Structures are given as structure tokens and as C-alpha cells.
Amino acid sequence: MFLKDFIFSIICMLLLVICVLV
């Protein structure tokens, strides 16, 4: 469960970075 939350956090952060770059 911890790993799933960690991966979800990374995905959200990547999406945020992509939105900022775009």
C-alpha cells in the first residue's frame, strides 16, 4: 500500500511538472 501511494505521488508530481512546462 505504501508503494502504491508513493508511485501515485510521483505520477502527480510528474503531471504537475508537465503542466508547468506546457
Automatic annotation (TrEMBL):
Q: Which domain of life is it from?
A: Eukaryota
UniProt entry keywords in alphabetical sequence: Mitochondrion
| Name recorded for this polypeptide | Nadh dehydrogenase subunit 1
